[in-house]
């Protein structure tokens, strides 16, 4: 693993020169200093003898240096750092090691992308597996409270807004998972006053998923005796033709967006930084204004609460490092270290996100998470007004968190919005709006 | 109108816009824009003249009902106006007209002075109308209707008296056009379900038929489920279904249909079908509460069986939320507001002892076995393996958690590491890493084994940088900078100043 010949780095020459001085300086146990005299696998051992805290700190430094090297497009230095990283990072180690693995991979992908042919060839057999992704999402849903928090908040906001309504039209901006609406159906069926006539319009780019979602929901609605219609809209949200949504007279409209708005920011990437363009409104503003024209009674927005859309790599890198460290910590306290589901989840869900944030640019980079403040401004620009999340919502969210054995999850309520944090790091924020 | 025909030649300059107006019914404004046809309106609203069309000749987009243009003018008409017909009366012969235009044209026939008003402004100002009834949903400007005909009909239907009655059946209508439309189809087409119910509409017939099958199945299973005890769902479904079965054929008028179904829903709720207490206990057997739908304990995705089912059968997706053992179908009744206890119940699973998990798993397994719904048969086979796996994982997880807690002090969390690195960086002297918010490690002798004079001590990989404090001249400066970063051979370090374009400036933000 250690390169024997290092043409540009001349490690070997320096080793012999500085060995003596080094070993006398350091307070390492003697056998460590013996290692320094030779290259080869012994260095590996040395690194493995690091205590986890030291290793963690070293990883952080390596990551940052590597990020810097990659940002400068310096292949040589990136390589050096990456080598060290590969020695220390591990898919099944402690959270810092795991996070480092994915960031390291992201950086390597990024620097390789400067040779697009190499990158594409290297990834030609690694087709993203939908089964893996769905599996990861399933684990994410069942093990962590984040998705449940999102669904719960959305559903309760809808229930609050639709009190007394006889006909409810719900538009799901990413209808790939019926779980959320199954719970809403349950809640609606026990509503005092009876359930409303519910229409769900699901927007998604995947037709098969839409069909299945629709079928599943229809069956559940039948069993609960709720008049129900599912209307699949196979379209891209960026170019959504509002007529496709078929909003009818007299319906109360609710819109649900769970982590579905940030990919829309990618389309504007060509013009990012151009003040003129931003003033006129990019794709996201158009979509929000279009949605506003539906006069929804409530639109709930849940997004990752972090700033992963900075203009420079290092900015994004550091923000993302903090974010995913917190996320991986929360996983660490919920799942055992050797659990394969955890690896699946980390790899296929978060790993992909990290890779996207770090390695991709332009329209490819879809994981453009932004903080609530920015979303708030966008929504207000589009003509929405904030609707404070009700007390029942907050109570339910708190109740949800109490169910989790570890007490690292924190709920912050501010200005009518809810933020779910791990310790002190905010992870997801939820807010509700109306036209 | 005979007068019009006789004078048509005189009206050439205005003929286009007028004839289009006359063909439109019930438009009182002078800006005559062809409205889209309301499906219940027998009147044709298409115009035959081309120049009376909207500006620009563009095909007019159908307005999205209920989604008013924010710049539209909101008009509140009084109930009298909405219900009025023939407001404009000729003074000579007392003939009533719905529109002023029509009256004016009629007046020509009496040789009375007439004035026909044209479109007053070049721009078409979109108008939306609100319902005068304060308790109505459409009283709010944001829910205004875009069509005058629409608001009139709405007002009559919802807040008016039902004066029109169908001959054949007992249905009454407030709007004449509705009544006409109904009487055309009443009795013409019939669907009859096996249970004897008649339907005039195909879609409601199909919906009912689906229920009807379930009804038969449920009643067959009631006797079997009775032994399981305490599953009120089963018991109740029978009578409630019959309520629905007794629903009269749906009318073309959507509201009525909804009303009935809602009524059915009310009765369900009142019967207590969804008694929350029943479902808080995960062990409560739920043989077929959702026909097995919500019960599929495709536990964790460890087996991947959940998605194998999804993609192989192409049928209904098994209840994802049902993946939690014991978290079956309608458990989430909670206390009314918590439709989400299925979420929380799922979370509960992670903390309960394996005994509970095992128990609930076994109960759902038995539940499934009695489920006759063919849709979910695919998944049943995989239940045991999935559930056992999850069970084991739970045990492992708890042991792991305990172990992890013991070693908590020894293992810092990733976020703690980041904070520590940031703290150290903040106290460091001029360095790139500090600029990044982390700083060098030159001031952290305590962390590593032993003291070191500005070295990283134990952090130094062999041969790199450790000796650089005494290495070549000129490299000391860089060494300090990069002690925290990585360690390079001194020869490299010497070259690095030129390399790093960022130099030693702390250009990056502190987080």
Automatic annotation (TrEMBL), chain A:
InterPro entries: TF_GRAS. Keywords: Transcription, Transcription regulation. It comes from the Eukaryota. PROSITE patterns: GRAS. PANTHER family: OSJNBA0084A10.13 PROTEIN-RELATED. This is Scarecrow-like protein 3. It comes from Sphagnum troendelagicum.
From TrEMBL, chain B:
The keyword Zinc-finger applies. The keyword Cytoplasm does not apply. It comes from Sphagnum troendelagicum. Residues 32-57, 452-462 have a biased composition (Low complexity). It holds the Pfam family zf-C2H2. Residues 1-71, 452-475 are annotated as: Disordered. Residues 1-21 have a biased composition (Polar residues). This is C2H2-type domain-containing protein. Keywords: Metal-binding, Repeat, Transcription, Transcription regulation, Zinc, Zinc-finger. Residues 88-110 form the C2H2-type domain. SMART domains: ZnF_C2H2 (SM00355). Signal peptide: none annotated. InterPro entries: C2CH-3rd_BIRD-IDD, C2CH-4th_BIRD-IDD, C2H2-2nd_BIRD-IDD, IDD1-16, Znf_C2H2_sf, Znf_C2H2_type.
């Amino acid at each position: 693993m250690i390169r024997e010949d290092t043409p540009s780095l001349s490690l070997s020459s320096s080793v012999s020169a500085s060995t003596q001085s080094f070993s006398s300086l350091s307070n390492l146990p003697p056998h460590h200093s013996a290692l320094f005299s030779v290259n080869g696998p012994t260095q590996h051992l040395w690194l493995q003898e690091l205590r986890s805290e030291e290793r963690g700190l070293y990883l952080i430094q390596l990551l940052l240096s590597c990020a810097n090297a990659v940002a400068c497009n310096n292949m040589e230095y990136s390589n050096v750092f990456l080598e060290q990283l590969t020695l220390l990072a591990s898919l099944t180690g402690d959270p810092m090691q795991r996070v480092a693995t994915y960031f390291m991979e992201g950086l390597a992908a990024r620097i390789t992308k400067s040779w697009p042919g190499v990158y594409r060839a290297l990834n030609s057999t690694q087709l993203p597996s939908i089964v893996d992704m769905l599996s990861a999402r399933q684990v994410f849903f069942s093990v962590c409270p984040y998705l449940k928090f999102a669904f719960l908040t959305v559903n309760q906001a809808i229930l609050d807004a639709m009190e007394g309504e006889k006909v409810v039209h719900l538009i799901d901006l990413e209808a790939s998972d019926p779980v959320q609406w199954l719970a809403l159906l349950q809640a609606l069926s026990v509503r005092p006053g009876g359930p409303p006539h519910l229409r769900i319009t699901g927007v998604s780019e995947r037709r098969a998923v839409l069909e299945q979602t629709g079928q599943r929901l229809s069956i559940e609605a039948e069993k609960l005796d709720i008049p129900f219609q599912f209307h699949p809209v196979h379209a891209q949200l960026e170019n959504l033709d509002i007529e496709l949504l078929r909003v009818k007279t007299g319906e109360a409209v609710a819109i649900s967006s769970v982590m579905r708005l940030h990919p829309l920011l990618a389309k504007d990437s060509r013009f990012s930084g151009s003040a003129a363009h931003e003033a006129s409104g990019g794709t996201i503003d158009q979509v929000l204004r279009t949605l506003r024209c539906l006069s929804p009674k409530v639109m709930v927005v849940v997004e990752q609460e972090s700033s992963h859309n900075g203009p420079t790599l290092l900015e994004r890198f550091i923000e993302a490092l903090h974010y995913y460290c917190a996320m991986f910590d929360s996983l660490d306290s919920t799942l055992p270290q050797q659990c394969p589901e955890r690896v699946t989840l980390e790899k296929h869900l978060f790993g992909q996100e990290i890779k996207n944030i770090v390695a991709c640019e332009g329209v490819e980079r879809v994981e453009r998470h932004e903080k609530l403040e920015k979303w708030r401004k966008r929504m207000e620009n589009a003509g929405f007004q904030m609707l404070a999340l009700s007390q029942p919502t907050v109570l339910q969210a708190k109740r949800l968190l109490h169910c989790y054995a570890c007490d690292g999850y924190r709920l912050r309520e501010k200005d009518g919005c809810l933020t779910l944090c791990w310790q002190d790091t905010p992870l997801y924020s939820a807010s509700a709006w109306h036209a | 109108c005979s007068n019009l025909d006789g004078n048509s030649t005189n009206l050439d300059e205005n003929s286009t816009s007028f004839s289009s107006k006359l063909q439109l019914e019930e438009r009182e404004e002078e800006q005559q824009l062809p409205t889209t046809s309301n499906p219940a309106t027998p009147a044709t609203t298409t115009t035959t003249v081309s120049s009376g069309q909207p500006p620009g000749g563009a095909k007019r987009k159908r307005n999205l009902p209920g989604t008013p243009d924010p710049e539209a003018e909101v008009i509140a008409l009084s109930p009298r106006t909405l219900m009025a017909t023939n407001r404009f009366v000729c003074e000579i012969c007392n003939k009533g007209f719905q529109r002023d235009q029509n009256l004016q044209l009629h007046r020509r026939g009496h040789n009375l002075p007439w004035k026909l008003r044209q479109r007053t402004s070049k721009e078409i100002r979109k108008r939306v109308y609100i319902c005068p009834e304060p308790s109505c949903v459409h009283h709010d400007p944001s829910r205004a209707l875009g069509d005058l005909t629409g608001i009139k009909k709405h007002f009559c239907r919802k807040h008016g008296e039902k004066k029109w009655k169908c001959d054949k059946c007992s249905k009454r209508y407030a709007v004449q056009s509705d009544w006409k439309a109904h009487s055309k189809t009443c009795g013409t087409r019939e669907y009859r379900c096996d249970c004897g119910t008649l339907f005039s509409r195909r879609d409601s017939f199909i919906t009912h038929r689906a229920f009807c099958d379930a009804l038969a199945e449920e009643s067959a299973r009631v006797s079997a489920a009775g032994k399981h005890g305490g599953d009120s769902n089963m018991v109740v479904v029978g009578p409630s279904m019959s309520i629905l079965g007794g629903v009269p054929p749906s009318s073309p008028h959507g509201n009525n249909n909804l009303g009935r179904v809602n009524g059915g829903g009310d009765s369900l709720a009142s019967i207590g079908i969804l008694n929350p207490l029943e479902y808080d206990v995960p062990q409560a057997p739920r043989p077929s509460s959702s026909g097995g739908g919500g019960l599929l304990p495709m536990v964790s995705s460890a087996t991947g069986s959940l998605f194998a089912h999804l993609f192989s059968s192409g049928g209904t997706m098994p209840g994802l939320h049902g993946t939690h053992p014991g978290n079956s179908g309608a458990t989430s009744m909670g206390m009314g507001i918590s439709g989400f206890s299925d979420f929380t119940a799922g979370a509960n699973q992670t903390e309960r002892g394996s005994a509970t998990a095992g128990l609930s798993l076994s109960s759902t397994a038995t539940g499934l076995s009695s489920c006759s719904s063919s849709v979910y048969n695919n998944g049943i086979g995989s239940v045991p393996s999935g559930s056992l796996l999850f069970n084991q994982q739970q045990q492992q997880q708890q042991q792991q958690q305990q172990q992890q807690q013991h070693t908590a002090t020894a293992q810092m969390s990733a976020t703690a590491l980041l904070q520590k690195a940031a703290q150290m960086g903040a106290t460091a002297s001029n360095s790139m890493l500090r600029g990044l918010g982390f700083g060098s490690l030159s001031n952290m002798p305590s962390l590593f084994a032993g003291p070191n004079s500005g070295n990283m001590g134990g952090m130094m990989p062999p041969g790199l940088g450790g000796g650089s404090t005494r290495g070549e001249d000129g490299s000391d400066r860089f060494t300090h900078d990069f002690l925290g970063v990585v360690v390079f051979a001194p020869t490299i370090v010497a070259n690095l100043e030129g390399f790093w374009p960022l130099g030693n400036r702390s250009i990056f933000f502190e987080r």
